Every structure is written in structure tokens, then in C-alpha cells.
Amino acid sequence: MKGISNRKPLIIYTLIGIVFILVLGVLFVQVAKHYVTKAYEEQLHYDANFVAEDFNLNTDSSLERQQQLEHYSESFPIELVLYQTNTQEYLHTFNRNETITLNELIDHQLNLNSALRLDSRLAVVRQINENVRIIVVSEELPIEYLNTTLWSVVIILALLVGFFIWGLGNRLYENYVTPIKKASDTAKSLAEGNYKARIHDAPYGIVSELSQSINTLARNLEYITSKYRNQNDRLKTVVNNMESGLLLINEKGLTRLANEPFINNFTNKDTSILGEVYYDVIEHKELNDALQEVIFMERKKQLTIETVQGNYFEVYLAPIRNEHDSWKGVVVVCHDITKIKQLENIRKDFVANVSHELRTPITSIQGFVETLLDGNEHDEEIVKKFLNIINKESRRLNALIEDLLELSTIEKDDFTLYKSHFYVTELMHDVDQVVENQLKEKGLTRDLYVDESIALYADYNRMYQLILNLYSNAIQYTPGGGHIEWNVTLDEGYIKFQIHDNGIGIPKKNQGRIFERFYRVDQDRSRQTGGTGLGLSIVKHIVEAHEGIIKLESEEGEGTTIIVLIPQKI
């Protein structure tokens, strides 16, 4: 159906050619009939003149006249009627089957100068004398034969012309129209972005050159587009995977490029912001003001911005110029310095806490030593009390320094774990013996649930330190009469150490900082119990060194649960 539909013009042209030949055939048939009739008429006039001049009326015998008529009828391809106008008698050469023609001749008033057409015959009349006329009738004209022959020729010629036009047109269609149409469809596909479109069956000649040129164009467009797409994909991948936010604004103030970090931190839209005015999509006033300043002043600017989420960004804004030094827009790069700010705050807190933690015992030791050295005599009990305080503070100072050194060692890049295989029950039993006296002194009870079959591949000493710090921390913050519970189990490839106490708990607002150095929920209580504030920080670093996970669950006034997951690599 599609082939027929595509060949509608060819079908129309073929039909037009056939109709044209048929119209010419009609005209030709009419002209041929006219000339044939004219030729027969001229011949009939000639024969009629000859017969009228040669006919002998000197005899009155009807028989002799009849014989003359038959002689002329046999000599010429004519029929004759001899008619007496006064007596209305006539003689003729017609046979019985032609009596109808004879009656028509007698009934007609024939003109002496013109021929009468009767069906397929011609008749002329000649006046021999005043009372005698002779009517000469031609043989049947070959009109039907002529019609049949001519129309057969015309129809055959029309069919031949139709076949010729169809064949020639079909050949032209296949060799030129179809390739050109394919070239047009291919060009349309290329214009729509389908650069894989090709012309596969190109013929010879100029159309072949056109097809090859379009195929070459398509291959070049595909290569250029593929190269551009690859470059664009690489650029988009690089831009979207940058941790820094990136924004590009053109000279009209419309956003042309923005990556995910910038959109997430500085815009109020979840969809694409491309093609929109920058101040309609950027919700940070300080950044908008900086952009406006760079646009009007055409100079670089740098500033630090805090977002509503509490993140800090170092923002660099610079005007873009082309090779002719014309202003083309602004590029904005936003570096996330939140962690740097946090580390800076931690550093400040660490320095302040270390200074405070060191100053307190040193001040105490210095004060009591100065009291003992003031030159006055002191009671032995007072001296002993002062010496015990000095001893206690010096031990506390020593413990603090050791924890700091320990934490410094663990945080080093070249820190090494000395791993070995051991059973967890052995580790837990060793730690339990160390804290047994502390539990009794505070009147605490404890339950220890450990699967004896669990073996661990880890640094025994560091794991010992981890368990001891967790145990000591629970004892420290659990009031007398409280309870501590240990559960050690296997959990999907990890060995799960879980310690739960029903102590004072940790408020929600403090739980995010509990693993920071020197951070204490209750500062006064921690110092009274001799804690350094570094225990949980050391625990966290040991867990991370073992590629483990540490979790905290706590409710203020209800107790705390700490879960440590160490990979079981046996």
C-alpha cells in the first residue's frame, strides 16, 4: 500500500497519457470516417454520372432495361433503381433482403446534387429525362470495420503508451524519485537529531553522489555530536561530582550551569534552575548581594557564607570575559568548609580544655607545695593530707598526659594494630577482674553474657583498652546500687559488644558530641571521679582502626547503651 501511495503521481500521469491517446483516437476515428465517406461519395457521383450518360432509354422493354441495370450493378459496386416519375413504376437491382432500403429510397425526396446517407450506404439521383430518374446506391460503407479497426489500434496504442509511461516513470521513480525521497527523509531525520540515519541503497549517477554526500554528512554529524555528547557528559560528571558548589551565570543574569551541591545548599527549587534569573532561584541574600556587586563592578569577590542548615562555605565569585575582553557572565565556586570550621572549633575547644585540665591539677599541686614551703611548721596530719592531695593530683595529671599520648599515637597515620586470634571470653574475663573492686566500692551489680565460642581477630591490647574504657565509663556514671550488663554476640559478620547501664543517661542535645575530646555531660562529676574526658574518644579511634562501628543509645535519667561492632575476620 505504501508503494502504491508513493506512486500516485506516476499513476495519474499514466492515466492522463491513456486518456490523451483515447481522445486523439476519437478525433482520428471521426476524421477517418469523414474521409472514407467523402471518398465513397466522390466515387458514387462519378459512377452515377457515367451510368446516367450511358443508360439507353431507346427501348421500351422492361426486360432490356432490367438487364442494363444489372450490367451496371455487376460492373460497379453499386445498386440501381430506375424510376418513372409519371407512372411511379421502377426497376431495381436490390435483392429481397434489401427491400427496406429500396422503400426508403423511393420515399425520400432526393436532391440531385447531394448524396443521401442511408444507414451504411450512400445514394445519389440523376435525371435521365423528364420522366425518368436513376438512383445510384453505393455498397455498404466499411464504417463498422473502420470503427473496429481504428478503435483496436487506438486502444492498443493507449495501452502501449500507458505501459511505456508506467515503465519509464517507474524506472525514473526507482532511480531518481525514490532515492531523492530517501535523501529527503534522511535529511529530515538528521535535522530531528537522528544522526544514525543512512541511505543504504544508493543508485548510480548524480543521485548516488547526493546519497554519498548525505551519508558523509550524517557520519560527520554523528561523530561531532558523539564527541560533543561525550565531552558534555564528562563535564557534567565532573561538575556534578564536585564537592564544591558551582554556578555559571551569563551576561543577562540567567543561570546556565549549576551542580547538585550548589542547588542543594543555595536554591529553593528541586527541579532544574537553568535558564532562570539568578535572584529568583538563589535564596541566600548575602550571595545575591555579592553576585549583584560582581555583575555591576566586574571584579572578583570572596566571602564566607553560613547557610540555614548551619554549613559554612568559602565563596569565590569572578567575572567571565572572552578573548576580546568582553564581559560574558559570572562564575561562582562554593567550597564547603564546614568540617574545617568544626575542626577549628574542636581545636579551640581542645586547647581550652587541655589548658584547663592541666591548669587545675598544677594549680592545686603548686598551691599545696607553696603552703608546705612557707616556712611555718604544720601539723603532721595536715602535711599528710596535703601530700595525699598532691599525690592524687599528680596521678590525675599523669593519667591525663598518658591519655593524650595514647590518643596522639592512635591518631597517627602510621598507627599499626598487632592483631592475633583470641576468644572474647578471655578478653572480657581479664577486664572484669580489673574493675571488680570498683564495682564493689560503688555497690554495682553486673551481668556478663558472652558466647564462649566467639573468637576474634584483632589487637588484643587495644580491644582490652576499649572494653576497659567502656566499663570504667559505665561505672563512673552509674549511681550506687545500679546495674551494668554486657552482651557479646555474633551479628551478621560482626562481633557485637553491647554494654548497658541504668545510670544518669545523656541528654539528646549532647549525644552528638559525646565522642569528642574532653567533652563531659557533667563536668564537675567527671573531675570528682577522676575522669580525663578522653576515654570515649580513645574508644572511637580504636573502633575505627579496626574498621568497626560504634553506636550510642541513651535516655536522660534512664541509662545508656553503647554498641561496638568489630568485623569478625577469622
UniProtKB/TrEMBL annotation:
Membrane topology type: Multi-pass membrane protein
Membrane-crossing segments per the record: 12-32, 150-169
Domain (HAMP): residue spans on this chain: 174-226
Assigned keywords, A-Z: ATP-binding, Cell membrane, Kinase, Membrane, Nucleotide-binding, Phosphoprotein, Transferase, Transmembrane, Transmembrane helix, Two-component regulatory system
Subcellular location: Cell membrane
Enzyme class of the recorded protein, top EC level: transferase
GO MF entries: kinase activity
Domain PAC: 299-349
Catalytic activity line of the entry: ATP + protein L-histidine = ADP + protein N-phospho-L-histidine
Keyword Ligase listed: no
Entry-linked Pfam families: HATPase_c, HisKA, PAS
Main subcellular localisation: membrane
Annotated Histidine kinase domain residues: 353-570
EC number(s) recorded for this UniProt protein: 2.7.13.3
Entries under PANTHER family matching the protein: PHOSPHATE REGULON SENSOR PROTEIN PHOR
Name of this chain's protein: histidine kinase
Organism: Piscibacillus salipiscarius
Lineage summary: Bacteria, Bacillati, Bacillota, Bacilli, Bacillales
Gene that this polypeptide is encoded by: pnpS
